[in-house]
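Quick one: Phosphatase PAP2 family protein from Streptomyces hyaluromycini, structure tokens please.
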Amino acid sequence: MAVIAESGSNPDVDLLYDINGLAKDAPHWFDRAMEFVGEYGLLVAMVLLVVWCWWSVRRRGPEDAASTMAALVWAPLAAAVAVLVNVPIRGFVERPRPFLTHQGLDVLVSGKTDYSFVSDHATITMALGVGLFIANRRFGVAGIGLALAEGFCRVYMGVHYPTDVVGGFALGTAVVLLLSPLATALLTPVMKAVEGSPRVGWIVRGRSAGVGLVPGDRASVEAEERDLAA
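--- reply ---
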């Protein structure tokens, strides 16, 4: 297929040079930091944010904990599905990395030989961010913010066009939202079954919420909560 954005007159390429040009003016240590953040750091931050969201939902033990957990489990699953969907897209578009087509870019990461469209990093982070937003808006906003930062880093590093990033954002968002009803319908009963288990119920709801307790213990917890409320 014809390669996208090969001409320097293309706004996509102009924006690439503008953003990547910041790397040329930045100190060496800052570029190395951006390389780590864009390649690994933000992905790790997204994973930690998902774990934090899980811990927060589990600790509070809301009435809809099972459905919230189902949405939270769907976030990483959706990211994996989106990456798989991207495999044929990359093979169909066959867009080379920008540094193979355009001269003068400051490439911070070497060894990138696969196709450029769409960005896996942008796809994964946005899928996780939108998935988090479905589960919890506060964590979701933070996740989407990290995804936007990831997209900027990929262009700054000279390994993706801006439209590679936008395409990744669109792909990750589409997979999460389009398949969310089906995924939630399948995962919610599973989470409810886990919640009711005396052994692994803590995964969905903390012990303070009464999961995994025998009836007498559950009544004791409820009595204590009433005493505290009084």
